[in-house]
Design a protein that fits this description.
By secondary structure, the protein is mainly α. 66% of the residues lie in helices and 6% in strands. The chain has a two-stranded antiparallel ribbon with strand order 1-2. α3 packs parallel to α7. The N terminus is likely disordered.
Length: 172
């Protein structure tokens, strides 16, 4: 990983990480294609559900770049901080009324599709989502989960630096 030194106000120097590669600058056709896919996946999908899905998948994939972006966007869109804070514990918090049953069905599907170690999405998880989303919405939800997992993998592989971290470091 490439690093650059930054001076702190106290005179200490730290190494600021840089991306391994600016993949989307190097291969802009991939970015355009992914953006078109993301746009199609989002079209007609509840934006709150889409935001929760993006954040939860990014948590599971440990994608700091996407977490920084989607948490920032969710806050700007008016999402309550409590719901963002409790998202890693959505099942328990959902039982306490923090998330709707529809949101919980989407989050269960997100987790099942993000961690495919078991080899498949369990029927009960799929059927739960199908009870809360009509067929067109479910198709969009599945596509949204596929899209965020792809974005996560691009950003994790290239060690993309979160915008919030880059901005914080440039102020130092």
């Amino acid at each position: 990983m490439t690093t650059t030194a930054h001076a702190h106000t106290d005179g200490a120097r730290t190494s600021a990480p840089r991306s391994r590669m600016e993949l989307f600058r190097v291969a802009p056709d991939i970015y355009r294609t992914m953006s078109a896919f993301q746009s199609a996946a989002s079209d007609g999908l509840d934006p709150v559900v889409a935001a929760l899905v993006k954040i939860r998948a990014s948590q599971l994939n440990k994608c700091a770049f996407c977490l920084d972006m989607h948490l920032t966007h969710a806050r700007e869109a008016g999402e309550r901080q409590l719901r963002l804070d409790l998202l890693p514990a959505w099942e328990e918090a959902g039982e306490q009324g923090v998330y709707s049953e529809r949101e919980r069905a989407a989050l269960a599907l997100t987790e099942a599709m993000t961690d495919l170690a078991g080899g498949s999405v369990p029927d009960e998880v799929y059927e739960r989502a199908a009870r809360h989303f009509d067929e067109a919405e479910l198709a969009r939800l599945i596509a949204q989960i596929v899209a965020i997992n792809a974005w996560n993998r691009f950003q994790v592989a290239t060690r993309a630096v979160p915008a919030g971290l880059a901005a914080e470091r440039s102020e130092q």
